[in-house]
């Protein structure tokens, strides 16, 4: 097969490979859907849609690709949106990790399973384009009745795999329409567009991945070399092949394993010095010949990206993630630790971060800690509570206004919060409460990275990290038309769910830490609490989360005059919760005191029972909270006749 004719084809697939026929592939998949996966074609429910957190687990490993793929998806969407297409990018498991659509069709698309987070695999959905592009590593259209499941039989879906340099499917790009003509040939052009966008994304990803290598851009035709690269080869400084893109591998009929490590001089009739020389001088196409076939091709060499040498003076300016604040907030809680780790992975990647959690769970504190961990930490952290600003003021507050835009007290003009956050972080709290008109303006700022103050004709460039927070379910707001879907995509680059205080597994440590901090701030010494008071604080359900805990500790320390907090210094509902949580003593103890002489022992026993109960009878934890060793707790339990519930008959 001629090398150059290969490369002049729109995609890199071997189109003349007669063993591959889409109809056969679809038929085999339909048989598997029935016989192997045992699916019911008439089932009416749409595909499963992952929760925001589960979706994040699929998005995180693909961060780099998502970034590059976004541009390709947007340009494809612009070309075919008016024909009613939506664009999906799925990972290798068929999970839609990115999605672009017309928000007006949102409800209908969701019902059809075309949605962010939907799962398209042959095992669960039967024959569909995403699954087949993935399984067959080919581009394919699955049209109307070809879908296995009845609910999808109005859809037309064209999908192409994105292959990594190892030849494995990294993702699948798909364009789907809810309605289309019956004739499948109407989809031919769309399939070609999906295919060439997939190639563009693969190549852009390749160039990004190997920006520190010498890269040869190859094409069969000299004239198109600069505008339509086909083959890509990354070389190390000695001229060995580090990676090749799929188009090159297909053209020379090699697998990645066969080519990796080979020397470029064993592949082309060119000396490495000549290639290097070409990359350093101005880029002139080089005419090369492939040694194995004698075919001619043309190459442009791109030199490795120059790394700016680091001088001693510059070094302190370099970013080393400062995770101290995030670590402190995470404490010893597993889900907070995971949140902090994820935040550190995405910081400075240009992704918006969405924090979800009840009021007082520390969303703003977490947003500040993200700012501290970023390269932006020396710039402003600007917080805006979207729920607290009246609708009439929010526009000028966020975007600012030009002198003369208003009369009276506001006649002078002001920079909005977006501009104030330039170079730093903008924290948009209660984003779910932002009015729809403002959402549109915010979307424009995020897309165009510039802001136009009210009354002004000129826009100002802005560079901001966005962190948003909400206690509301944005998915539900989107479904009810109260939140723009496209803004939702822009904002939830990463979603982190902050646990409520009663869910935290390190509550005791957190209480002690805050007690110390509040004591130091009020009386310049660490605050303490009696075992009773500590147990009560741990038992309470804390509807107001950390903010409520801080306030109560502060008030209790004030009432105790800086001495150890006792139960009586705590609000009645906390005292009450403690008592209500105690089971009747009869259930817990044997050998009740028989005489008044034993009254003191009785109260000692009650105290110990309370602490044990607060720690769910975990002796280690109870011992730690009392500041004594486990053996002492056991000894006291024995002496006072306390038997833990799981040892009672
Ligand atoms: N892990 C933590 N350790 C210590 N203090 C914390 C922690 N998390 C939050 N706080 C403190 O708790 C209080 C409430 O936190 P914050 O204002 O960040 O909550 P929020 O979720 O943004 O609340 P809202 O939704 O009501 O705006 C603040 O005083 C904050 O400093």
Task: Compose a concise summary of this entry.
The chain has about 650 residues and is of the alpha+beta class.
How much beta, percentage-wise? Answer: 5-15%
Question: Which residues sit in consecutive blocks of at least 5 with pLDDT less than 50?
Answer: 1-11, 14-18, 307-320, 583-599
Indicate the structural class: alpha+beta
User: Helical segment tally?
Assistant: 27
Q: State the domain count.
A: 5
Ligand types: adenosine-5'-triphosphate
Rg value: 32 Å
Which descriptor suits the 3D outline? globular
CATH topology term of the largest domain:
Beta-Lactamase
The strand order across the widest sheet is 2-1-5-4-3
* Strand element count: 19
CATH architecture annotation of the largest domain: 2-Layer Sandwich
Question: For the record, what is the CATH homologous superfamily label of the largest domain?
Answer: GAF domain
For the record, give the distance between the C-alpha atoms at the N and C termini, rounded to a whole number. 82 Å
**Helicity range:** 40-55%
- The chain-level mean pLDDT equals 83
What is the highest CATH level, the class of the largest domain? Alpha Beta
Descriptive key words:
globular; disordered N terminus; 27 helices; about 650 residues; Rossmann fold; 5-stranded antiparallel β-sheet; single chain; 5 domains; alpha+beta; Beta-Lactamase; binds adenosine-5'-triphosphate
């Amino acid at each position: 097969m001629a090398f150059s004719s290969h490369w002049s084809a729109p995609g890199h697939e071997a189109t003349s490979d007669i063993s591959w026929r889409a109809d056969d592939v679809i038929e085999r998949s339909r048989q598997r859907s029935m016989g192997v996966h045992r699916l019911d074609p008439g089932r009416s429910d749409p595909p499963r849609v992952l929760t925001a957190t589960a979706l994040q687990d699929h998005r995180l490993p693909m961060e780099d690709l998502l970034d590059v793929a976004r541009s390709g998806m947007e340009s494809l969407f612009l070309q075919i949106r008016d024909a009613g297409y939506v664009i999906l990018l799925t990972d290798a498991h068929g999970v839609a990790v990115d999605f672009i659509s017309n928000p007006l069709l949102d409800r209908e698309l969701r019902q059809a399973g075309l949605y962010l987070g939907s799962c398209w695999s042959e095992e669960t959905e039967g024959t569909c384009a995403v699954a087949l592009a993935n399984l067959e590593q080919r581009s394919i259209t699955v049209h109307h009745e070809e879908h296995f499941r009845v609910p999808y039989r109005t859809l037309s879906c064209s999908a192409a795999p994105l292959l990594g340099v190892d030849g494995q499917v990294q993702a699948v790009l798909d364009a789907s329409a809810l309605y289309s003509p019956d004739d499948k040939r109407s989809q031919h052009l769309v399939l070609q567009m999906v295919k060439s966008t997939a190639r563009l994304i693969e190549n852009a990803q390749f160039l990004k991945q190997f920006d520190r290598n010498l890269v040869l851009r190859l094409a069969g035709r000299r004239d198109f070399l600069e505008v339509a690269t086909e083959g890509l080869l990354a070389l190390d400084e000695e001229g060995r092949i580090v990676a090749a893109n799929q188009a090159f591998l297909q053209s020379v009929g090699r697998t990645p394993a066969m080519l990796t490590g080979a020397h470029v001089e064993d592949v082309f009739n060119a000396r490495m010095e000549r290639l290097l020389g070409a990359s350093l001088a101005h880029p002139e196409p080089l005419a090369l010949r492939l040694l194995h076939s004698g075919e001619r091709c043309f190459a442009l060499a791109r030199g490795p990206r120059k790394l700016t040498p680091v001088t001693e003076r510059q070094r302190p300016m370099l970013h080393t993630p400062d995770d101290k604040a995030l670590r402190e907030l995470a404490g010893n809680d597993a889900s907070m630790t995971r949140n902090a780790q994820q935040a550190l992975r995405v910081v400075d990647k240009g992704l918006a971060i969405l924090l979800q959690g009840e009021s007082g769970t520390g969303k703003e504190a977490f947003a500040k800690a993200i700012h501290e961990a970023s390269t932006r930490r020396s710039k402003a952290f600007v917080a805006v509570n979207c729920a607290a600003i009246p609708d009439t003021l929010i526009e000028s507050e966020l975007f600012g206004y030009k002198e003369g835009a208003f009369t009276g007290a506001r006649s002078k003009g002001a920079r909005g919060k977006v501009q104030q956050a330039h170079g730093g972080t903008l924290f948009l709290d209660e984003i779910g409460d932002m009015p729809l008109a403002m959402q549109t303006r915010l979307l424009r700022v995020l897309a165009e990275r510039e802001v136009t103050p009210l009354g002004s004709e000129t826009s100002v460039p802005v560079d901001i990290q966005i962190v948003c927070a909400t206690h509301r379910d944005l998915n539900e707001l989107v479904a009810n038309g109260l939140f723009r879907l496209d803004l939702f995509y822009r904002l939830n680059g990463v979603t982190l769910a902050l646990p409520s205080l009663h869910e935290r597994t390190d509550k005791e440590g957190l209480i002690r830490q805050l007690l110390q901090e509040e004591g130091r701030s009020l009386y310049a010494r660490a605050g303490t609490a009696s075992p009773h008071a500590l147990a009560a604080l741990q038992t309470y359900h804390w509807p107001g989360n950390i903010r409520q805990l801080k306030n109560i500790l502060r008030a209790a320390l004030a009432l105790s005059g800086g001495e150890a907090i006792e139960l009586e210094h705590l609000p009645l509902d906390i005292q009450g919760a403690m008592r209500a949580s105690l089971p009747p003593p009869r259930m817990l103890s044997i050998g009740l005191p028989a005489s008044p002489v034993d009254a003191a022992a009785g109260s000692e026993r009650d105290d110990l029972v309370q602490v044990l109960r607060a720690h769910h009878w975990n002796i280690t934890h109870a011992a730690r909270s009392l500041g004594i060793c486990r053996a002492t707790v056991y000894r006291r339990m024995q002496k006072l006749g306390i038997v833990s519930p799981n040892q009672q008959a």
